[in-house]
Specification:
heterotrimer; A mainly alpha (315); B mainly alpha (301); C alpha/beta (464); A: 315 residues; mainly alpha; MetI-like fold; two-stranded antiparallel sheet; 2 strands; 1% strand; flat; C: 464 residues; alpha/beta; D-Maltodextrin-Binding Protein, domain 2; 2 domains; two-stranded antiparallel ribbon; 18 helices; 43% helix; globular
């Protein structure tokens, strides 16, 4: 080994060591311990007791018909997370793809739209939740209830409905429907990011392909499905997985809107975990919920890798 | 979309979305200059007494509701997190991108796998790890404290800013290394080699030649982390319990609960603006770096 | 710039910024806690639930305590703070091993005590009281006040107030209709029929929260069968809930619902039901001592609130003067607090006779300290409550609620709701409760305390 190589090696080692130590002690080691705690019954005060898969069995038992109230918390949280994963993913992918292809086709003022659409992404989730809580409220702030009211009077005025179609005010932030009410909020916040993501991918598609298609007389819709979508497919899949993972981890919005309390009907996995650990002193069960979140993330990531196009398309 | 009708519809959609995004924020800013009583009378309206209510709301938020402290705490925590994060991640990313030994390839996989670990998984272990480490540090450092004549000093990683900073830095490492290694990889090696031939050491070559070249990447990483950490709520909620150590999102959440109890909406809107403004400023001036980062992400897949 | 190169200027700026940053970090960041203690001056931290009562009393008592200690030459510092969400702030700190020394946050005593998180106050309780020289501190409490806070013989929490579950009525309304307080259960039933004739619901009931029904059940149960069978349930002996008299108690309580409760009782919150009572659409209501305070602004001007307890049953074997009551609003002392022993000193001072008397004056409630609630200082209503408590043969409470929260939430309260809304028969109710308790008995992970001794009092012997 030349002296230069040895020098290089020393430098490289010195450069990665702090990151390695920090990552190992603050991320990797706790992650391993997290798996262990998931297999224990532990109140966080005395010593943990190893109980194997009992925490996970308890979660599964929650799905049976005669499960008690506290056992049912887990299935309800899963349901809420599914709503928060699938709803936004479908809507955002559709909207972001539309917006991105519009931007690509040289809309006037595209840069203004780009800057503005991305804007909600930079806001704190706490602030956004408070804002939407106000917009959803049943008092005078409630824009959405006001809109429904106008819709009611509009429909009756037009003679389309004899009596009010919607029963206002709707309690949008009621625990039972909170997960549904969060979908528009997430779409509002995140669409801009995915628009930029897809736009960046679209701009890498060579213009010559579209020229050729235009010569063949392909409509814009046809061009989108036959050229754009296949060529940016990997990015779309990545975006979808980001959205699913984000839906899996929702905490801030629910916690803020529910006034920092865990409620049985609106829990997500993250809020349920928080309340299990800090309100009910069930740190072991809380860790088990975290393991479920991790396994889901892992699953999504692996599925994505499978969904990627096998060979890179040549263009 | 070629027909003029389709084009018109497209613009209608885009402008509608633009308004939906911008109007609520404008509403928050305008309303923060109205008194609570005004807000109750008519939630949507123009301020009757700009200067009066604006001053009153912000003064109340800044001083009485301690946004002054929360703001300073957030600035301290986020700036020291960013400084430490970049100081650690830049050299590491450079080394990981430049040296292709087997060990380093595995090391990169090790670091990037952290992106899959949800913070929830780390919560319980870290919470109790902090408790154990604090106790150990207290014992270990007690001779030192005694030497300074302080006998009852306790070390507390939890509920302290350094503890939170360490969490923020380590949990942001994977993502930052991902961005930075991609950037360093795109840099030409000729300049580095020229530097070495000129007699630069490895460190000088990194510090004076390569790092300035990677500035756009570093800025991108810094902005993404700034936005993420400025708005971070979950970890701060778990690890900070004492009022005087709270960061802005915690303060804002507390005020929103108070607003429901005590109905002080002027204060709430002022708080919203105080939290949103710094990220807005950063965004307006540095948004092209964000776009750049997203482009990079899109092409890497 | 006097010729300094810009680079040097930048470097110096960075250096000074780093310096400022690091010194600020070290001082104000919270990494090092000196526990605020100067040499020899211990510091106590007290966290208070800041509900409707405010903290003026706490403030005054703390000032006095600090002055008292300074006079003794043993100076002390007390940091106290209050928050409506104090429980959310204290809980994570318990897990972190850094709780305050004492707190009245409504924390789960039976979770914390077996886990060893609480600090035993026995040494202080069995020592002298603060201002009654002939008594130990323990002896100054009302009978039974400390029962719910004693774990394996160690008392780890101190109740500030004493709560009794009683029946409230309005003297004005009763006098207007010429109704008399009943002395037997059948008289009570006649009275209820009369009230119904007048177009008023005999009983208002807070159906959404089963705590109120729980208290009714146990007082009827005791009147019917005596305290021993009640205590068999309280000590979770097998089959205790299946006793014919336990089932009979369920039948009696169920008959209230179908005959006496107001319309829609089972879906009403406590506020809604209590408003029915305040507005005289219902003549009586079961509730705790806090009713007067809670509904302060809702009573009409001529309302004269007073109280009684469910009268004796003909042929009933229990005491007719026993009251379901126990200490409430307890201060817990934490083992991991910085100075729990000083926290205990502060508690002993706070609950001195003099300070307790002031507490009563401030919030108008029944103090857990005997003699602290004085008739001349409280309204007629509270004086009536006091009479009931003082005349009680003995007091007892349902400790299963706090002991087994899962059983309470998933078995006992749902089945009690089913019973009261007439969905199930008393026998089925008893079977469900018993089966749930059987699961608890078999579960080695649930902490189960020793059987508790029979309550003390003149009436216990006859009520066995």
């Amino acid at each position: 080994m030349s002296p230069h190589r040895a020098h290089q090696r020393r430098f490289a080692l010195a450069a990665v060591t702090p990151a390695f130590l920090l990552f190992t002690f603050w991320v990797a080691w706790p992650a391993v311990k997290g798996f262990y705690f998931a297999l224990t019954r532990w109140d966080g005060l005395s010593d943990p007791v190893y109980i194997g898969l009992e925490n996970f069995q308890q979660m599964v038992a929650g799905f049976s018909a005669e499960a008690g109230k506290s056992a049912k918390l887990f299935p309800v949280a899963i349901r809420n997370n599914l709503i928060l994963m699938i709803g936004p993913a479908v809507l955002i992918l559709a909207l972001a793809l539309c917006f991105a292809s519009a931007m690509r086709s040289r809309v006037r003022g595209a840069s203004i739209f780009r800057v503005a659409f991305f804007f909600p992404n930079i806001l704190s989730a706490v602030a956004v939740s408070i804002l939407w809580m106000l917009l959803y409220s049943t008092s005078g702030f409630g824009v959405f209830n006001a809109l429904l009211g106008w819709l009611n009077s509009g429909l009756t005025a037009l003679g389309l409905a004899a009596e009010p179609t919607f029963k206002v005010p709707v309690a949008f932030t009621d625990s039972k429907i909170l997960a549904w009410s969060l979908i528009p909020m997430i779409v509002w916040t995140a669409t801009g990011f995915y628009m930029l993501l897809f736009l960046a991918a679209m701009q890498a598609v060579p213009e010559t392909l579209y020229d050729a298609a235009r010569v063949d007389g392909a409509s814009p819709t046809l061009q989108f499905f036959h050229i754009t979508l296949p060529l940016i497919w990997d990015t779309v899949v990545t975006g979808m997985v980001f959205l699913l993972i984000a839906g899996l981890k929702v905490f801030d919005a629910v916690w803020v809107i529910e006034q920092q309390q865990s409620r049985p009907d609106s829990n997500t996995l993250a809020t349920l975990m928080y309340s299990k650990i800090f309100n009910e002193y069930q740190a072991g069960y809380g860790a088990a919920i975290a393991v479920v979140i991790f396994l889901a993330v892992l699953l999504f990531t692996l599925v994505t890798l499978r969904l990627y196009r096998k060979e890179a398309l040549e263009y | 979309m070629d027909t003029s009708g389709g084009r018109f519809l497209l613009y209608v959609c885009l402008i509608a979305w633009l308004l939906a995004v911008v109007l609520p924020f404008g509403w928050v800013i305008v309303t923060s200059a109205r008194s609570t009583e005004e807000i109750f009378r008519a939630p949507f309206g123009w301020p009757e007494d700009w200067s009066g209510s604006l001053g009153a709301n912000y003064r109340k938020a800044w001083v009485k509701s301690h946004f002054e402290d929360y703001f300073l705490n957030s600035v301290l925590v986020v700036s020291s997190s960013l400084a430490l994060l970049l100081a650690i991640a830049c050299p590491a990313a450079y080394a990981l991108a430049r040296y292709h030994s087997r060990t380093f390839r595995w090391l990169l996989v090790y670091f990037l796998s952290g992106m899959m670990v949800p913070v929830q998984l780390l919560l319980v272990p870290l919470f109790f790890q902090y408790k154990d480490w604090s106790e150990a540090l207290t014992v270990a450092l007690s001779p030192l404290f005694a030497w300074f004549g302080q006998n009852h000093v306790e070390v507390s990683l939890a509920d302290s800013h350094p503890g939170l900073v360490l969490l923020y830095v380590s949990l942001s490492l994977s993502f930052t290394l991902f961005i930075l290694t991609s950037f360093f990889r795109t840099l030409p090696t000729e300049l580095y080699e020229a530097g070495i031939i000129d007699g630069c050491g490895e460190f000088r070559a990194f510090w004076t030649v390569m790092l300035p070249l990677a500035k756009p990447g570093v800025v991108t990483a810094a902005i993404f982390n700034f936005i993420g950490l400025w708005n971070e709520y979950f970890l701060a909620l778990v690890f900070i319990n004492t009022d005087k150590y709270k960061t802005l999102p915690l303060g804002l959440a507390a005020v929103s609960i108070q607003a429901n109890y005590r109905s002080d909406f002027g204060l709430l809107f002022a708080g919203l603006v105080i939290v949103m403004l710094p990220t807005l400023v950063v965004y307006i001036f540095l948004q092209r770096y964000l776009t750049q980062g997203i482009t990079l992400g899109a092409l890497k897949g | 710039m006097r010729g300094t190169s810009p680079k040097w200027g930048r470097r110096r700026f960075v250096a000074s910024a780093c310096g400022a940053l690091s010194s600020a970090t070290l001082q104000g960041c919270g990494l090092f806690r000196s526990a605020g203690e100067q040499e020899g001056v211990p510091r106590v931290e007290m966290a208070i639930f800041d509900g409707g009562f405010g903290m003026a009393w706490h403030q005054k008592v703390v000032e006095r305590f600090v002055a008292h200690r300074a006079a003794l030459g043993k100076p002390i510092r007390v940091d106290f703070w209050g928050d409506p969400r104090v429980i959310d702030k204290v809980r994570p700190r318990i897990l972190r091993g850094a709780p305050p020394d004492i707190s009245d946050a409504p924390l789960p005593f039976w979770k914390l005590a077996p886990a060893g998180a609480l600090f035993s106050l026995n040494d202080w309780l069995d020592g002298p009281s603060f201002d009654q020289s002939n008594k130990t501190w323990r002896e100054t409490f009302l009978r039974g006040a400390l029962n719910p806070f004693t774990y394996e013989g160690q008392t780890c929490a101190i109740p500030l107030t004493f709560n009794a579950w009683i029946l409230w009525y309005d003297k004005t309304l009763f006098e207007k209709h010429g109704w008399k307080l009943p002395s037997t259960f059948s008289e009570w039933e006649t009275l209820c029929e009369e009230i119904k004739q007048a177009g008023i619901a005999p009983l208002a009931y807070q159906g959404k929260y089963p705590y109120y029904g729980d208290a009714l059940y146990w007082s009827v149960f005791q009147r019917l069968s005596g305290i021993r069978k009640v205590e068999r349930c309280q000590n979770f002996e097998p089959g205790a809930f299946l006793d014919p008299e336990a089932i009979e108690a369920a039948r009696v309580v169920q008959s209230f619902t179908t005959r006496y409760f107001q319309e829609g009782a089972m879906t009403m919150s406590h506020t809604e039901a209590q408003l029915e009572f305040c507005n005289r659409r219902a003549a009586m209501i079961p509730c705790g001592v806090w009713l007067e305070n809670e509904m302060r602004n809702a009573f009409p001007k001529d309302f004269r609130l007073s109280c009684f307890i469910i009268p004796r049953f003909e042929g009933g074997k229990g005491s007719e003067r026993a009251v379901v009551a126990a200490g409430a609003q307890a201060f817990l002392a934490f083992r991991d607090g910085g100075r729990p022993e000083e926290g205990a000193e502060l508690l002993r001072f706070m609950l001195s006779l003099e300070n307790s008397r002031e507490w009563v004056k401030t919030v108008s409630t029944v103090s857990s300290i005997e003699g602290a609630t004085r008739r001349e200082e409280i309204g007629q209503t509270l004086a009536d409550v006091l009479t009931l408590v003082e005349n009680a043969a003995f007091t007892f409470d349902n400790r299963l609620l706090d002991l087994f929260p899962t059983w309470r939430n998933e078995v006992w309260f749902p089945t009690l709701e089913d019973l009261l809304s007439g969905k199930i028969k008393p026998e089925a109710f008893a079977r469900v409760a018993e089966k749930g308790l059987e699961r608890i008995r078999r579960n080695p992970d649930v902490y189960k305390p020793q059987p508790r001794p029979l309550p003390q009092g003149a009436g216990v012997e006859e009520a066995l």
